[in-house]
Amino acid sequence: MGKTTSQLLASILVNSIYEMKNYPVVLVNTVLSPLSFLVLITLASGGSLFGEAIEGGLIMTMFSSGTALQGDLSHLKNDFRLQDMVVASPTRAGVYVAGMTISELIYSSPAIAILGVLFYFNIRVTPLQLGVIVAVMGLMFLTSVALGFLLATISSDIVQSFAFTRLLSTLFSTIPPVYYPITFIPLPWRYLAYLSPTTYASEIAQNAAGLLKEPTVSIDAAWVILVAVTAVFLTVSVTKARWREK
Fold first, then answer.
1. For residue 130, is it within any domain?
2. In a domain, 153, yes or no
3. How many CB atoms lie within 10 A of CB 162?
4. What distance lies between CA 25 and its chain's CA centroid?
5. What per-residue confidence (pLDDT) applies to 81?
């Protein structure tokens, strides 16, 4: 086993496997958060938005997985001083963050699995359409990881980190039209939804699954904006995040 692989596995063991094994109750919130919105939207719509709610749950899970990185990194940095030890070791920042990022996906795997099963049995898509939806989920995860890492490096307390996490979840996963079509929002309020990248992600995913026939913006434009936003967040995270204390 190479050194990089060992370092990745160490991050995964510390941040996900240990908690999942010793405190399985922490998985309850991970599963219930997206499923609760799915049930709420489905009941409120009489079942007509079940497909949109499934895709919304997947988008929310991927985005929440990335933003959760912020709280975990901040906890390990401020409470256990783990980042100081990593900085003093041969481990590179990229390897450490990559391992922590993978651990967030593992941590969210129960929710992803449940939503994936619901998607399989209720939404019929071609392999190409599925690839589009998976790509959208990946972009949303990268965006949230970049945000999470940036905020974790500037956060000085775990309480502050939790506040950031709740704020990001509300602004990007709850308020925007993730669980329902944007056409449900009346004009001119609809344009405010486009301030969130998750709106573009949901439009692309819903269009790919045949759930949104006439998107408000063109799908090509939505792709350009979503990729650009992801690139900007990643660039800012890499260039502005404080890995070493001055």
1. yes
2. yes
3. 15
4. 21
5. 66
Q: How far apart are CA 225 and CA 112, in angstroms?
A: 25
Token match 């920042």: residue? 93
CA distance 136 to 230: 11
Name residue 178's amino acid.
V
pTM (2 d.p.): 0.87
| 192 Cβ contact list (under 8 Å, min separation 6) | none
The domain in which residue 89 lies consists of 3-240
Question: Are the C-beta atoms of 176 and 99 separated by less than 8 Å?
Answer: no
67 assigned to some structural domain: yes
DSSP state of 186: P
Q: What is the pLDDT of residues 203-240, one digit of tens each?
A: 999 999 988 876 667 888 999 999 999 999 888 887 86
pLDDT score, position 79: 62
Contact indicator for 60, 33 with CB cutoff of 8 Å: yes
| Cβ(244)–Cβ(87) below 8 Å | yes
Domains held by the chain: number: 1
Any domain includes 246? no
Q: Which amino acid is at 235?
A: T
Taking only the tens place, the pLDDT of each residue in 177-212 is: 999 998 888 888 888 888 899 999 999 999 999 888
Nearest residue to 198 (alpha-carbon basis) of 151, 152, 113, 139: 139
Would you state the pLDDT for residue 190?
Answer: 85
Q: Residues 30, 109, 67, 73: is their CA dihedral positive or negative?
A: positive
